[in-house]
Amino acid sequence: MRNYARRQFLKGLGTTIALPYLPSVLGDVGANAATQRMIFIAFGWGVTQETWLPKRGDVGPNYQLPEGLAPLARHKKDFSVIMGSQHQFNLEGHWGSTVFLTGANRYAVPGKSFTNSVSADQIAAQAWGKDNRYSSLQFDTENASESGHGPGLSLSWNQSGKPMAGVQNPFDIYQKLFGNEEMSVEQRQRMIRKKGSSLDAILSDARQLQSKLNVSDKDKLDEYFESVREIELQLAKEEAWLDRPKPKAPFDTPKDGLKGYEEIKLTYDLMVAALQTNSTRVITYRQPVESLLQSMEVGISSHNMSHYGGGIRREVSEQRDQKQSELLSYLLDKLKSTKDMDGRSLLETTTLSYGSNILHGHTLNNCPVIVAGNSKHLKLGEYVELPSGTPLCNLWLTLLNANGLDQKSFGDSEGMIDRIMV
Amino acid sequence: MKHFLRSLLCLLAAAQGAAAAPEGSVVIDAKHREFFELYCVECHNAKKTKGKVRLDEEAFPFQIDSLQSADQWQKILAALNAQDMPPEDELQPTAEEKAEFLGMLSGKMVEARELLTDSGGQIVMRRLNHREYQNTMEHLLGVPVDVSTLPVDNAGETFDTDGGALFLSPDQIEQYLSVAKVAVSDALKPVHEEEPMVIRSEAETMSIDRIKKIHADLIEAGQRAAQYDADPAEVPDATKYGFTDPRAVMIARNRYAERDAVFQNFLDHPLTKSGYLLSYWFPQRELVLRMQRYQQPKSIAKKGLADHEKTMKKAGKSYPKGRYKMRARVGLTDEAQQQGGQYFMEFGARRSVGEFLRIESFEVSAPHQEGQIVEAEIYVSEQDRLFAFSEETDKARHDHMYRLKNDGKGAGHRIWIDWVEVEGPLKRNKSRALQKMEKTVTKGASKEDILEGLRYFGQSAYRGQEPNSAFLEKLYTIYEVNRQSGLKPLEAIVEPMAVMLSTPSFLYLSEPSGEMAEKLLSQRELAIRLSYLLTSSAPDAELLGYSEMGELRGDQLRKQVDRLLASPEADRFYEAFLYQWLDMERLAFFQFDVKKYPKFNENIKDAAAQEVYQTVRTLVDENIGTEHLVKSDFVVVNALLADHYGLEGVRGDHFRKVKLPEGSVRGGLTGMAAILAMGSDGIHTSPVERGAWVLRKVLNDPPPPAPANVPMLSRLKEKKLTKIELLKLHQEEPQCAHCHKKMDPIGIGLENFDATGKWRTKKELNKFRYKVKAAGKIHRGPEFKDYLELRDYFSTKVDDFNLGLIEHLLGYSLGRKAGFADQELIESLHKEMKKDGNSLRSVIHGIVASEAFQTKK
User: Is the CATH number 3.40.720.10 carried by domain A2-178+248-420?
Assistant: First the structure.
């Protein structure tokens, strides 16, 4: 595995070749010119404030790229660094991702110690999802809380604020996107029908039980009904997609069991592949930090690193920034060089946001965020300082609207951030 | 929490009986007005409302009674912590004033959150958590169930028995369906009527041919490399010698130099003629036991097959899925006997190269001349077909430490394996429901018969509840469709049964109460709650039997509690409760530094966790007081841990009570390796973590959560500081001081324990060795000169410890956080407990007999 990592690394990060537009790569329904896509990536424990953030006040397009972002130099015009925002309700020092895309107040409902609300990606998924095999995809990592992500099953929370499960292993994502379907259309049809009648039977038991429950248990059982409905929707989609085989994979089956640096890189490859094949238009990812450090063999835990102060922890924290920026740079390369069905670069049509609720340690009032892509609607290449205390939800609201999703408000938003719009 | 409860109780007498969130408030003492007047009100008053905030007496009540007021106070706390307020150019509070105010307010915020999130005693219907689902499925079907594909429970801050915190993700039902399908079809496979087969393989047959072959290749390549080196050409052509390039030559040369003697040493060893020797490094780390599948009879000419493989291969037989017994005869080599010391071997499963899942570890103590038998039970599944013995599993260890020992001959061999034996598949008992189902469908039954089989199975799956008939009709339809599509009856029934095991009636512990605000549990529901509490699984026939007769009360209920506590399944209760209560997941967080702590491997980490569970179990089994969790004259350990603690004369892998010598630092939670290792990061100790843990768990005085947005001490950026210096700095900053002055002295008092919990008198920092100074003073408490005195202080706090234990056990048992309304119950449980000599058994009985446990709210 180490050798593999070395080899992949030696191949070079900045040398991806533009993939030609091959119809064989694309299996799913066509996109149209208006096609927009969104990726949300969160990296748990934050960054090294001193070396990742541009200098205070050095705003605008001519800002000096800080050391922690140095690997992104060749993309400087393609992204903006946006600082100054926060989620006013989140005071949990270890929750880098739980409310990152929601901005919810965990205490919002009296008598409950935790509630969440819908995440920004799901607004997009709701609006666009019907045209894709998957209305959205959630990518995740093992033991995400060790990586500073906080409670949750992925970055996504559904319309009722319940956690949506993510796929934790890139190998499984590959199988989900491109896995072999050995069954014939008839067999699959039969399978779908069978699943349908299983659900039908299940509902009969569920309804009977529901009728006997008290109010709060009924409420709990609603999760179950929601889950059934979700599967029904998925089945309906599978049926509609029956005669359309899964897209051909743009690359061979990857190795199973990759961890850390290689795990993230492969997940990025799969993100690009999923968008390229139009399998989905919305992706979230809780990126690993703990296993990234393990793959860097630095010998300290990621939580410990995030309280860096000075010395070895600070060194590791900066190394982590380098690796993460290197990887992000790799992702931007790929998005740039990969064309969608209309022959446009994916970076043009994809809004990528990349950040954390945590700056470092337990600091939550200045979220590090990078926005890239969708240059038609977003002003990029700048360092932006928002007035201190700006709700991060203002940014989510802005990005949703920049994607043609007409939203008046989102979470605790107070308004749009006009200055990042074209 | 206890302080909060006391203060609340006075305020909340009026809220008695309210079903929804309690009304009431947390009051902030008016004496803190002065702080406000001095530092806040000047800018935030009726006339001058900076930031549209008013903090004057008229506008700002000193109490927290709603989400809004909680948010306001939270903002004040945050502004003070972040040093945003008072502004730099305004009058600043002294460090002391600020620390006191922050300490007070963060405490009040915790109280307020407790109050505002109190569910008023409501117990939300709970989905079976992972553990319970797995146990319940096995209980019902008699086969182990792989749940690794299900999303994690994500209970987070509460116990995994808290229904409110157990969500269901959108595709989870599909996952349940597919897990259940595999499990049901495994369960319906015919039970092997014949006696299980027993096949023994002499260990010398199992790997020796392979090792000889590798050695021969090594020598051959080494010779070619030597020829290449002797080639007079300036840059010889590597391909002439069968190498791709000069790099390959280098590899072959180095390998030969490094490994030849190690292989030779192994092959020359007299004990490899009659068995196999485990190694730390080459020739081979593991002795692998392959339980492959063979479809067809195959010739067995190929060398290197173990006897058991030959037998199966020749017959073209597969090992059927199922439980097996693995036995091996092992012993210590002469070298090990001469060296003395203790030796351990591991046995585990392998799914892929390099992955090793430990199943069992054994102490090997018999000389090879006598031999000893080790035995483990394994489950052979679709994925798990490879098993292995090894002396240690941590790969990094071997490479670094044993490569060049002993004049290049490696680290030698300590453990010898004579033979390996596999017995199985072991017979399994099929439940009556399963047997009945099989009988019904195999004989080509009528619709009525099938429906009856499903009904009977359903009743068993639903823990005594009848499935409804419309539902059964639908299941029958699925069966029919399957039959028509050509499936055999036994195949066609799999899906309907799997559907049954994916319905809410199976997956949720439902206690229907309809319109009632609360109801007494039915006998059946009580049996279920009790069984899930003490065994994390469905009630057995005996318990259900008593519930059907309506006898689960009084003495019979006590008898049943005692019976379940005595069962091996009660281990699940101890593990689940203690793992979660004591935050033991931290134990798995860190990889311990191999060079610094070569012996603290996964094996000993497991044993350390077991010590915690087994100690508590021993207290309950033998009815010994819980004060022994604070300070004790005995430990409950096995040989591995005794070795770690430097206790002599403990042999073997089972846990047992061991009397401690006078003045021992062991005995009590704070002397246990698991607890101490959790208070480290795998390299260094963390006095802060340890101190906070003791406050939370031992003294039941949890510090408020670490505040967000405290500015980092930037002036320290470039400095290298010792841990103690760092801690002192914490205490100088008021934002940190109000908690750290409580945590840090305790953590420092534990500094004589290294990161793995071993006792030390010196510690290392930046290559220097310092004497450990563990003396200190408890905040607003006594001084102590060392750990023993610190522990004596803990043992004056046994009542506090017990209150914390009761509160959390109650939360685990009820499936909801213990709230303000439970205060009376907690106190009466404590009273009974004390009367019975701090008996935890008494608490368990008390909880089960309580109204809270027997009521659905």
Answer: yes
Instruction: Round to whole Å and give the CA distance between B138 and B532.
Output: 14
Helix, strand, or coil here: B79? helix
Query: Is the pLDDT reported for residue B18 higher than 70?
Result: no
Whether the Cβ atoms of residue A154 and residue B169 lie closer than 8 Å to each other: no
* Cα–Cα distance measured from residue B459 to residue B84, given in angstroms and rounded to the nearest whole number: 63
- Domain boundaries, given as residue ranges, for chain A: 2-178+248-420, 182-244
Contacts A224 to B, Cβ<8 Å: 168, 173, 504, 507-508
For residue B477, the chain A residues in CB contact (below 8 A) are 197
Is residue B222 scored above 90 in pLDDT?
Answer: yes
The shortest C-alpha distance from A338 to chain B (Å) reads: 31
Helix B798-814 to helix B840-849 angle (10° resolution) is 40
pLDDT at B672: 98
DSSP H or E stretch at residue B4: helix B2-11
DSSP string, B560-616: HHHHHHHSTTHHHHHHHHHHHHTTTTHHHH-PPPTTT-TT--HHHHHHHHHHHHHHH
Q: Is the pLDDT of residue B259 over 70?
A: yes
User: In this predicted complex, what is the ipTM?
Assistant: 0.82
CA contacts within 13 A on the Cβ side of B540: 10
| CA gap A390, A378 in Å, rounded | 19
| CA–CA dist B19, A286 (Å, integer) | 38
Nearest to A208 by CA among B84, B621, B462, B523: B462
What percent of chain B shows pLDDT beyond 70?
A: 89
Q: Which value, to the nearest 10 degrees, does the dihedral of the CA atoms of residues B810, B812, B817, B821 take?
A: -20
Mean pLDDT of B314-322: 72
pLDDT at B805 over 60: yes
Give pLDDT < 70 ranges for chain A. 1-34, 180-181
CB-based contact A227 B70, cutoff 8 Å: no
Each residue of B483-510: b (16+ CB within 10 Å) or e? beeeeebeebbbbbbbbbbbbbbbbbbb
Q: Say yes or no for a CB contact (<8 Å) between B716 and A108.
A: no
CB–CB of B163 and A228 under 8 A? no
What is the C-alpha to C-alpha distance for residues B770 and B779, in angstroms, rounded to an integer? Answer: 25
What's the mean pLDDT in B733-759?
A: 91
Does residue B392 surpass a pLDDT of 70? no
pLDDT of B550 higher than 80: yes
Interface touch A213/B474, C-beta < 8 Å: no
CB contact under 8 Å between A197 and B481, yes or no, is yes
Of A49, A201, A301, the CB nearest to B590: A301
Q: How do residues B624-649 score in pLDDT, each as one tens digit?
A: 999 999 999 999 999 999 999 999 98
Helix (H) or strand (E) holding B380: strand B372-380
In chain B, where the domains are located: 23-117, 127-188+433-510, 198-424
Q: Give A135 to chain B, closest Cα distance, Å.
A: 13
Query: Coil, strand or helix: which one is B113?
Result: helix
Candidates B485, B504, B514; nearest CB to A221: B504
Q: Which residues of B touch A300 (CB under 8 A)?
A: 681, 683
The residues with which B657 forms a beta bridge, in sequence order, are: B636
- Taking the C-alpha atoms of residue A78 and residue B527, their distance in angstroms, rounded to an integer, is 63
Could you tell me the CA-to-CA distances from A45 to A51, A144, B735 in Å, in that order? 15, 11, 22
Find where tokens 């599948």 sit.
B293
What are the tens digits of pLDDT across the range B159-215? 999 998 888 887 889 999 999 999 999 898 776 666 788 888 899 888 888 899 999
Nearest by CB to B474, which of A204, A234, A311?
Answer: A204
B169 and A227 in contact by Cβ < 8 A? yes
